[in-house]
Amino acid sequence: MNYRSLLHQAIIASVLAGEEILKVYETDFSVETKPDKTPVTLADKNANDKIIEYLKPFDIQILSEEGNHEDYHIRKNWNSLWIVDPLDGTKEFVKRNGEFTVNIALVENNSPSLGVIYCPVSKDMYFSYKNNGAYKIDGEAFGLLINHIKETSFNSILEVAKKLPIKNLRKNYVVVASRSHMSSETYTHIENLKLHHKVVTIINAGSSIKMCLVAEGVADEYPRFGPTMEWDTAAGQSILQESNCTLIDYLTHEPMIYNRENLLNNWFIAKR
Q: What is the spatial distance between Cα 210 and Cα 154, in angstroms, rounded to a whole number?
């Protein structure tokens, strides 16, 4: 696999998907409810179309939240696939708080080998690729590249990226928790952490930004004791792993695996 080429295209796809999302974000959009009771908007659909357009040339299968989900008897034969959430944090999108992302991951043999998480409002870009680390480009720097992203080389992107984690001298233990999905089990877990750490600070955030904060070093831990899907975590797990963090399945006590028969994740803890 030429990870640099794949990652470069995934970064471009995420930015162009972000543009589609913002076009809808600035309008009086309507919200539909899917059979699983989750919200969906025109932004989800348009972002998905743009990502598929840019990933299709690699002839790698795509599993997207907003696409058709092939039966497992077909998917189990896929040694590699893209796992995509074209708009992670639709609830945050509907609330217009800016805390939503575009998630793109490449999974090989059930493990993520590259990941891209892009925040269309802040313009923050996080990405990683196997055995080469995880990176962040803050919105101010990345904003200068966005208007000509299709012509920007991968080397030019790397030049403005900072390798993760970014050094942090804080002494408090920071837990990041879901803004829209805080469960009683998560609350109990955080209370237990307070027995082991002098100062525990809680940050609330939406979407896969929570995993990025752990990878970056802003937070030490992200416990998720509630439902998520494979496309919610695959890109974030790649970024976590390449920044010397873990995302551990709460039931198996092993790193989360992907392209499973059941696409619903078990509980997990992302931790530095």
A: 26
